[in-house]
Amino acid sequence: MSKHLTKRADDYSKWYNELVVKADLAENSAVRGCMVIKPYGFAIWEKMQAELDRMFKETGHENAYFPLFVPKSLFEAEEKNAEGFAKECAVVTHYRLQNDPDNPGKLRVDPEAKLEEELVVRPTSEAIIWNTYKGWIQSYRDLPLLINQWANVVRWEMRTRLFLRTAEFLWQEGHTAHATKAEAVKESRQMQDVYATFTENFMAMPVIKGVKSDSERFAGAEDTYTIEALMQDGKALQAGTSHFLGQNFAKAFDVKFTSKEGKQEYVWATSWGVSTRLIGGLIMTHSDDLGLVLPPKLAPIQVVIVPIYKGEDQLEAISEKMNVIVKELRLKGISVKFDTRDTYRPGAKFAEYELKGVPVRIAIGNRDLENGTLEIARRDTLEKQTVAQDDAVSYIENLLEEIQENLFKKAIDFRKEHTTEVDTFDEFKKAIKNTGGFVSAHWDGTEETEDRIKEYTKATIRCIPNDAKEEKGVCVLTGKPSSKRVLFAKAY
Amino acid sequence: MSKHLTKRADDYSKWYNELVVKADLAENSAVRGCMVIKPYGFAIWEKMQAELDRMFKETGHENAYFPLFVPKSLFEAEEKNAEGFAKECAVVTHYRLQNDPDNPGKLRVDPEAKLEEELVVRPTSEAIIWNTYKGWIQSYRDLPLLINQWANVVRWEMRTRLFLRTAEFLWQEGHTAHATKAEAVKESRQMQDVYATFTENFMAMPVIKGVKSDSERFAGAEDTYTIEALMQDGKALQAGTSHFLGQNFAKAFDVKFTSKEGKQEYVWATSWGVSTRLIGGLIMTHSDDLGLVLPPKLAPIQVVIVPIYKGEDQLEAISEKMNVIVKELRLKGISVKFDTRDTYRPGAKFAEYELKGVPVRIAIGNRDLENGTLEIARRDTLEKQTVAQDDAVSYIENLLEEIQENLFKKAIDFRKEHTTEVDTFDEFKKAIKNTGGFVSAHWDGTEETEDRIKEYTKATIRCIPNDAKEEKGVCVLTGKPSSKRVLFAKAY
Questions:
Q1: A1 pLDDT band (50/70/90 cuts)?
Q2: β-pairing verdict for B268-275 and B168-178
Q3: Would you call the peptide bond into A144 cis, given omega within 30 degrees of 0 as the criterion?
Q4: CATH superfamily assigned to domain A12-286
Q5: Confidence band (pLDDT; 50, 70, 90) for A425?
Q6: CB 3.0-4.6 Å disulfide test: which of A137, B33, B97, B254 passes with A86?
Q7: Residue A2 has pLDDT above 80, yes or no
């Protein structure tokens, strides 16, 4: 496979798939729809996890772990949730293999080892967790219960795509229980904010915070708060959701608590999650035709040094100089790779680190040694600068911050250019067709209209933005009255 | 359920089960054999993970993630491995549920959604990983490949026990590929050393390093290096294993590389893992009849402060004093909980933190305020000391180290007292029956003898210790010649 990528303008989807594989992020596995996350891709996930985990803990949550399997009877207890996921469940029916009498050396499922009750591989853990919470919650003193788990889940998808939609994916799922509705709503909105802070400050990916329309809501939720990001092809990506579950699960699993006043009440619930899908969003927000572009805060390697030398002596002289700088950078918490491999030429290394999105690349050759300089290239703008070795550390430190900010700014600008306010359905269709991106329009609030718009344009309501202004208007399709604009887009 | 534990001397196994549940570490779930790891138990696992992960990375390993499911045809490719795990495999046969026509509101497995090929829920990942490595390894330049994954695995066990043996458990599994046999053997021994360093330095749990006999070896391995710990009931616990897999998986999955000399050769493999079972070992090494005893390096809460007060004014005065100390302790990286709950009395709090094994407990009341003192209790020896507030921080810092060392020393002493060198089978039987623990004896090297000894005494060969001296002897059962002593014990 050539190192050259398909161009985004030629085939965005092909560009994406090639990039994920060529930049060594992930690949398809022998299991249909399940991916292998390669070390370089997993290192990005680890950085995301570390940051999110810190943020969850700072907001009072603790981690726990719940079983992979959900007995069918628990799974079906909350009907809407069960119905929502039933069509994509991997089901364990047997617990043993045996030698296959018809095929020597092969195994078959042992028909004697059929489970009395089938086990669903968790597509989400509300059922198993609320069945557990029943034993944990008796009194208001046990509330709020603020738990998160990092786990794998399985949703049997027919059409899959690395990171964006896979049968198995990695995620975190927060599950909280509260004494009052107000507190639970506050929690789900807080986690929406946490997600937005993370995606914007660390991923440099701007998001719109809003609430889902009825038809896009999580199965079993009363309200789904979402963060929606815009990708470079003009499609929206649902990047994280936080659900106010009302008392649906508490009722399904009979989880009551004794209030301060001594009354028995059902508990109020939330759940919220982000997944390895975020890596897909990260890629599609910043990357270009040369490969991945990573924001410094999540880059596994922030700075790479490529020595340009002939013979061992020159390499030694370069190493001596650079080791001092490497050490200083690492002391500042900057991750540096000094690539001294002699099996690849500098040009090949340049291309490799461009493909892998390393934010800052340093090249140093013999003339630099003589002049006391370095060449510093930034991945986001591809600009190069000659810098005095003595100034290198502080220059790089500032540059990493600048790149982080620049990526965010570029993404914000892109979103601005690709958000269109429309008042007629003709404008709507034109915007979706020409500009892509978000279309802000009045809507009459009915599922029927939503469905018809989707049918005509493939665009769906991404959210009703939290900051949507109250204003009088008429539905872009039906002309019926509407009090606020909502955001439409084609979506992943 | 009463807070009082069954005494170890009365029923060790009952004591263990009660302790795990009452100390809020874990509980059984609605899924047979699968546990829920509660936040306090999971916090210990997180500390273990962080430390092990650091050690793996320092020895050059990277993390990745591989699919949960293994197609049956891949699973059976390495025959010994497949045979070893076939009897305990959870198997996914269907990918969809549907409404049950016979039971309104219920779901059933959709018979139309049968998978063409069944998927095994990974009991271990060699098969799926080596099938992937085939694509990653072409030349000696791609070697060594040093990968680890943190994952859940499922082994359908009939008799389960929280942490020690559960159907689903959390673990890490390292999978490495090397150009030479020598390098692969070195890697598997290195990881045995890493495990031993971790269990001894962090868990304060001494281990014997050795190699497994043929019958105790991992299915598909050429050699299994193990670390074996001794529990307080005289039984051994296999705490971690590192396998030299030879070329078995490389041959089964046809993974060859071009050597420096241009020859096509099969790759050499290792795999190694430790699991949430370590938490069981941690509990059984140190805990007592009052509850859990945690080594400071892995304790989620290292220091707890219990104020003893009447009225808000006294609490305020105590808090003012303690907040300074809390801040100083935290600056030193010590985790402190200041328990100001007014819903529990100090006595109840003392009992709770004893049960939860918090290494250091500070009590402070009105008289202490007047005298500028604190009462500091250590969990390991239950000793109390009055200390000047001004000296508290450095006192506690030293005390935490002392507790860590003391726990290790106690465990070493216990093991010494429970290790018996025997030369006759009568001595052997007496040692297993009376002292329990490790029995060091000559063995003729045959599986048959091993089986007979197990039949007579229930003891198995835990390992042939790495440091076993070459010495002439005769097998304790058969009188046949033997060149070194091996370690027997009853085991978990």
A1: very low
A2: antiparallel
A3: yes
A4: Bira Bifunctional Protein; Domain 2 (3.30.930.10)
A5: very high
A6: B97
A7: no
CATH of the domain spanning A301-399: 3.40.50.800
Tokens at A144, concatenated: 């709020």
DSSP assignment string, A241-279: EEEEEETHHHHHTT-EEE-TTS-EEEPEEEEEEEETHHH
Q: What is the pLDDT of residues A322-331, one digit of tens each?
A: 999 999 999 9
- Is the CB of residue A444 less than 8 Å from the CB of residue A438? no
All residue ranges of chain B with pLDDT < 70 are: 1-3
- The CATH classification number of B301-405 equals 3.40.50.800
A89 vs B: CB within 8 A: yes
B8: left (phi over 0), alpha (psi -120 to 50) or beta: alpha
Comma-separated ranges of CATH 3.40.50.800 domains in chain A: 301-399
pLDDT at A196 over 90: yes
Q: How far is CA A490 from CA A482, B64, B279, in A?
A: 22, 32, 48
Domain with CATH 3.40.50.800 in chain B: 301-405
Q: Which helix (H) or strand (E) holds B91?
A: strand B91-94
> Residue A442 carries which DSSP code?
E
Would you call B30 and A132 a contact, using CB atoms and an 8 Å cutoff?
Answer: yes
- Chains A, B: CB contacts within 8 A come to 193
> Would you state the torsion angle of the CA atoms of residues A450, A451, A453, A457, taken in this order, to the nearest 10 degrees?
130
A417/B102 Cα distance (integer angstroms): 55
Please say if the pLDDT value at position A397 is more than 80. Answer: yes
Mutate: best of B31, B100, B136, B171, partner A, most A CBs <10 A: B31
Write the pLDDT tens digit of every residue in B432-463.
999 999 999 999 999 999 999 999 999 999 99
Specify the pLDDT at position B38: 98
Cis ω for the linkage preceding B104 (within 30 of 0): no
Interface residue A121 vs chain B (CB under 8 A): yes
Distance of CA A14 to the CA centre of its chain: 20
| Minimal Cβ distance to B107: which of A72, A92, A128 | A72
As a whole number of angstroms, the distance between CA B228 and CA B137 comes to: 34
Would you call B168 an interface residue with chain A, using a CB distance cutoff of 8 Å?
yes
Mean pLDDT of A335-358: 96
| pLDDT given at position A3 | 64
Q: In the predicted model, what is the mean pLDDT of chain A? A: 97
CB B374 within 8 A of CB B387: yes
Are A238 and A491 in contact by the 8 Å Cβ rule? The answer is yes
Residue range A293-319: average pLDDT?
A: 96
Question: Does position A194 have pLDDT exceeding 90, yes or no?
Answer: yes
DSSP B442: E
Q: Is B39 on the interface with A (CB under 8 A)?
A: yes
Contact yes or no for B128 and A46 at CB 8 A: no
- Assign a CATH topology to domain A419-489: Translation Initiation Factor IF3 (3.30.110)
**DSSP states of B323-389:** HHHHHHHHHTT--EEE---SSS-HHHHHHHHHHTT-SEEEEE-HHHHHHTEEEEEETTT--EEEEEG
Contact B307, B315 (CB under 8 A): yes
Task: Report percent pLDDT > 90 for chain A.
Answer: 98
Residues carrying CATH 3.30.110.30, chain B: 419-489
Residues of chain B with CATH 3.30.930.10: 12-286
What is the secondary structure of B158-202 as a DSSP string?
SS-BTTTB-SEEEEEEEEEEESSHHHHHHHHHHHHHHHHHHHHHT
The beta-carbon neighbor of A42 closest among B37, B63, B92 is: B63
Q: What is the mean pLDDT of residues A405-412?
A: 98
Question: Can you tell me the distance from the alpha carbon of A348 to that of B121, in angstroms, rounded to the nearest whole number?
Answer: 41
Per DSSP, chain B holds a count of helices (H) and strands (E) of 14, 27
